[in-house]
Amino acid sequence: MSKSLKVSGQDAHEAPQPYAYDLNAPDAPALSDRARPLPRISIQAFCETPTIAEIIQTASEDRRLSKAHVTFQMGGVAAAVAHYQENPTPNLIVLESHLPHAELIGALEDLAQSCDPGTKVVIIGSANDVVLYRDLMKRGISEYLVAPISPFDFMECLSGLYNNPDSDPVGQVLAFVGAKGGVGSSTICHNVAWTLSEAISTNIVIADMDLAFGTTGLDFNQDPVQGIADALQNPERLDEVLLDRLLTTCSKHLSIFAAPVVLDRDYEMSPEGCETVIDVVRQNVPFVAVDLPHTWAPWTKRLLLQADEIVITAIPDLANLRNAKNILDLIRTTRKNDASPHLVLNMANMQKRPEITPKEFESALDIKTLAVIDFDCENFGQAANNGQMVEDFNAKAKAAQAFREIALTLAHRKEIKVEKKSPLAPLLEKLKLMR
Fold it and tell me: Tens of pLDDT along 351-364?
């Protein structure tokens, strides 16, 4: 009797369970919800057609597979059988095969002789055949995909194999960056994060990455002794216990990873270290809001491009338009399988200041503005001085509703508005029935 290919881990057909929130019905799943980042695994693919090879190549360049080591070659199942007779098997083997049913099963039995028990196998074929599918599942194949497929279909399949639905979902990373210094990106980040924690009663952490000049502590009226710099010194030591000690609680659902804001220290930040810290945080909370400084370095670029959602804040002038376009061009080139980033125009409609209109901004950048927040020195200034968020200071402020809309959009939630009924409503209903 031939050995069967053994599949370790979860059932490939179980979908990751979404977070259950008390308020606001969920919208359609976001792309980043359907395909989560893969762990550090090795993937080897054996293709028969250039089309599938190109799809796997495209997927391998995506941020979700940045930790995985992906290689591919032509030759299909026959090449795989020959290769693994002399080489160890990786964590995952991807096979493209258009062989008839019986020939494919026979080739897989040959492959099973060389496969390690923990190796997962995904097959891409052209036959939409239930009998074949069941036969492959009986032999321990992890998944069978029917061509044609897209790079995102492929990533979604792999995500289902390596993200356990029985464990807590990996949290979403929301990156906030300014098109220029002083445009209020940190203010947008902090208000949106606070609003999100209040609106859907979910835990969120703000990671202040501006170690020298960060304002998170000031904005929330906190003066923490420890913070994110302590985690970045030894990122490999950060775990759930240490994280809980370094975070500062601001409200029931909001905590901050504050910056030290001292200038007598040199901060050496590596992309790998920053990514490790954010990964630990996202394993413990549903949302991480990363407040990026207006500094272009390898680590800021890595955190920006690895985020699940990106918010670019700009004010309506020419320099911001140019910088926003450069950021958007980079994101669109690098993140081809992700949704478009979000643009927020801040401090708009300032008196006597020449401005580029939102329509001109949208036309030049080919993007729809998520929100336009008017210049409001009274509410923003007083809230900042009090260490409060705008909605907490003045719930009727125009910006408060904008922050709520941004927060719900990033969380892929829709606000349920309850209609206020008049005290006379029962009487009016009776009068209608009497007519």
Answer: 989 999 999 999 99
